[in-house]
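Morning. Coffee machine broken again, so started the prediction first thing and wrote up yesterday's gels while waiting. Chain of 510 residues, entered below exactly as on the submission form.
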Amino acid sequence: MVELTGCSLSLDEAKRVIYGKEPVELSPLSMERVRKSREAVERIVKEKRVVYGINTGFGKFSDVLIDADDVEELQLNLIHSHACGVGDPFPENVSRAMLLLRCNALLKGYSGVRPVIVERLAEFLNKGIHPVIPQQGSLGASGDLAPLSHLALALMGEGEVHYQGDVHQTLTVLSKENIFPIQLQAKEGLALINGTQAMTAMGVIGYLEAEELAFQSEMIASLTLEGLRGIMDAFDEDIHLVRGYPQQVATAQRIRDYLQDSKLTTKQGELRVQDAYSLRCIPQVHGASWQALDYVKEKLEIEMNAATDNPLIFDDGEKIISGGNFHGQPIAFAMDFMKIAIAELANISERRIERLVNPQLNDLPPFLSPQPGLQSGAMIMQYCAASLVSENKTLAHPASVDSIPSSANQEDHVSMGTIGSRHAYQILQNTRRVLAVELICNLQAAEHRGTDLMASKTKQFYEEARKVIPSITKDRIFSKDIEKANQWLQQTTLSTLIKPTKTKEETTNG
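Came back before lunch.
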């Protein structure tokens, strides 16, 4: 059980709720803050004070006063008019993450919603009712208005939801679960949609997968080092300590750990003096990607516990401020940074693939073919990897440098953070497939060298991978192998096979 407080949700807890379906409970202290915040909104309505979002229009209509009798219709109209997302729906786990993050944000007690709104979000989570939410249509400022409106529709009994492995009309599922649709009251529609939970949820899913893939990339690179008889001197701890980046030091240490008893790796001068950059600079390149991922993690954990709607209610309603916490710029930057970091793992992987298949760069069979000439072997797999890497380069263009004014120029600078988060996830999928190709190739290279000469840890990984990817004894439809390897990597946690060794710094710091 994960207790939500609005202030302490971690990525590890989010992972348990999103993937492990661990139930959530609401902190009583936080729920008391929610009740007090709601009381403030109800006083404002009763006293007929003019406050943006409670009894005014929205955006450019912020100066239009709404009659007290119309405040509920105002919220209904807001959700209906803003639910204009388009395109394929977000993956179901992203929808689940959005419910979690929105629930946690409202628990902070600055939004003025009734407790039932927060309770219903938690109930949807615990019963596995996940709104169908189109991916496209958010500018990433004024909040993720379109995606979150589709989430709000589900609370109202409208739209569609994922439920028990299929898509259903929301009202049908609510009836089955004896849940009544909510009729939104003053401020509640705006509080539900004015936030960054779509881009942040997509970012959380992307980060969790990226973190695992980054660990896997080091193991895959280690197998390539064996297949190419790489020089281990370049991974000596002294080299990395004198530069000073902890992530670079950690990457080098993990690779030394994976390869410590290998009889395939070499020493400086044994076969050649030095390796190409794609082998020699693995700690520097992968380590830099880890630096970026650490930055992303920090920003996501702040945003997961942030009050991001507008206006915000302070001092029991004595201070209500209309600001801009809904602006997604911090997450937009983080997502663009993650795009570049993951794309680089693919870039360097593709260069290692080239070194595995190009007979001018190694002493392996040309293109790892079982019968060079008659059979093409891995030749076109390298083409596929190169294509994905090139596609990543276009997707890695930063979304955050773009902005289009909206709402009659009232909202004249936006973040495009949701686009950045979606593109980061696309890059991640492409990168995993590039690494899948490298894995197929280095398994074949290791087999050619002699698996009995492999390090004990890389051999263990080799044996697990071979259960999914058979040896290349004849040309076949390699698309199927790439997809099998991709799915295996997506579903496999490296620590369940090989537990990464902590660095001295990590051990000292606990």
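The chain has 20 helices and nine strands. Going to sketch it on the whiteboard this afternoon.
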